[in-house]
Amino acid sequence: MSLERFINQAVSSWMSSEGPHSDIVLSSRIRLARNLAQYKFPTFLTAEEAMEMTEEIAKVVQSYSSMELLTMESLSSLEKRVLVEKHLISPLLADSSPYGAVLLSEMEDISVMINEEDHIRIQCLSPGLQLKETLEKANAIDDAIEEQVPFAFDEQRGYLTSCPTNVGTGLRASVMMHLPGLMLTQQISRIIPAINQLGLVVRGIYGEGSEVLGNIFQISNQLTLGKSEADIVEDLLSVVHQLIVQEQSAREMLMSTSAIRLEDKVFRSYGVLTNGRIIETKEAAQCLSDVRLGIDTGYIKHISKSILNELMILTQPGFLQQYAGGALDPEERDVRRAALIRERLKMEENC
Predict the structure, then answer these.
(1) pLDDT score of 99
(2) Where do the DSSP E strands lie in 169-273?
(3) Is 87 known as a binding-site position?
(4) What would the pLDDT profile of 168-189 be if each residue is shown by its tens digit?
(5) Of 1, 24, 220, 224, whose Cβ has the fewest other Cβ atoms within 10 Å?
C-alpha cells in the first residue's frame, strides 16, 4: 500500500482541519462517563448482561447517528493498539474483557466506549481550541441516549460512576497543547505546579501515566463534583488562554534573543527527519516538535502545520506495524519510522 493511501485510511478526518489557536492547541476533547440505572457497574456484570447492554446502547446510539460498532473481541491486539494511538479508545478498554466495544463516527471525531470503567464513555474530539463546541456535541449524544435509557443519577451527587473521582458531572475536558517555547525557556517547571493548584492536571500525550513527548501536554480538569459542566469548561479555558499568551511570549523572546540558535535547532531536527535511517520514538517526537515550531515561527514555509499531528500518530508502534503488515521488533520499528517520516516529508515537498 502506498503511504498516501495508508495516510488517507489511517488518519482521522477531523485531524486534517485547523481550529482556533491551532498553532498551540492541537485538539480539544470532551469525555462524559455514564452508567445505566438498570445494570450493575461493569466490574460486576455477567457476560450475558454485558453483551445485552452493548446491544442496547448500540441500538440507541445508532438510532441517533450513523456509527460503526467495533467489539474488542473482534479486533486483533494490533488493531486495538492503533485505536489507542488514535485516541479513539482508552488503554483500559483495549485491555479489558472481550465484552468491551466502541461506536465510531465516520470522521472519528466521536467515539462511544462501552463496558470500559463505566457502561458508557462518550468522547468527542475537535481541532484547535473548541471546548464549548465539543461539549455541545457530546451533550447532544448524551441527551439522545438518556431519552431512551435512564442513567444512574443521584440528586445530590449527580451522575454515579465506578470511580468516585468521576462522580458528579462525569466530565473530563482536556486540551492537547504544543508548548516548545515554555520548555526551551524552562518556564514550564514553575507553570505546571501552578496549574495543579487550580484543580487541573497536566499529563502526557496519552493521558494518565503517560510520558510527555514532543513538548505536547494534555491539560484537563481534575474535579467533576461541585461545579457545572459549563463552569468546568470555563475554568479550563481561562487557564488555556493564559498558557497561549505565555507560549506566544516565550516564542517571541526566543526569536528576539536567540534567533540563530532557534533556527539552527529547527533545521538540525529537519535534517534528522529528512535524512535519518534509524529514529526512536522520543527522538522523532522531539524533532517533529522542533520542525512544527519552525513552521509556526516562519523558518520553514513549505510544510503544512498538520504534519506534527499526523506524524505523531503515524510513527507510533501500532501504526508502524500496521503499515508494515505485521509485527516488528524495536529496531525494525525505528528503521520503519525513519523511512516513513522521510517519505512523508518528501510527499509534502513535492506538493
Answers:
(1) 86
(2) 171-178, 200-203, 216-221
(3) yes
(4) 999 999 999 999 999 999 999 9
(5) 1
Q: Is 299 annotated as a binding residue?
A: no
Residue in 197, 13, 170 with CA at minimum distance from that of residue 88: 13
Q: Which pLDDT tens digit goes with each residue over 234-289?
A: 999 999 999 999 999 999 999 999 999 999 999 999 999 999 999 999 999 999 99
Looking only at the bridges linking them, the beta strands covering 200-203 and 158-159 are unpaired
H helices, E strands: number in the chain = 13, 10
176 marked as part of a ligand binding site: yes
Question: Does 203 belong to an annotated binding site?
Answer: yes
Residue appearing with cell numbers 479513539: 88
For residue 175, say whether it is annotated as part of any ligand binding site: yes
Determine whether the annotation assigns residue 210 to a binding site.
no
Q: Which H or E run contains 110? A: strand 110-114
- Under a CB-based contact definition with an 8 Å cutoff, are residues 114 and 57 in contact? yes
Confidence category of residue 225, pLDDT binned at 50, 70, 90: confident
Handedness of CA 316, 248, 229, 165 (dihedral sign): positive
Is residue 128 part of an annotated ligand binding site? Answer: no
Express each pLDDT in 97-143 by its tens digit.
778 999 999 999 999 999 999 999 999 999 999 999 999 999 999 99
Rounded to two decimals, the pTM is: 0.92
Annotated ligand binding at 206? The verdict is yes
Q: Which of 78, 57, 81 is nearest to 69 (CA)?
A: 57
Q: Taking all residues of the chain, what is their mean pLDDT, rounded to a whole number?
A: 91
The answer to whether the annotation marks 268 as part of a ligand binding site is no
Q: Is 157 annotated as a binding residue?
A: no
Binding site annotation covers 337?
A: no
Interhelix angle 3-10/317-324, rounded to 10 degrees, is: 130
Q: Is 208 annotated as a binding residue?
A: yes
List, in sequence order, every beta strand (DSSP E) within 230-300.
none
Query: Is residue 292 marked as binding?
Result: no
Q: Please name which of 102, 124, 131, 221 lies closest in space to residue 171, comparing C-alpha atoms.
A: 221
Distance from C-alpha of 148 to C-alpha of 2, rounded to nearest angstrom: 45
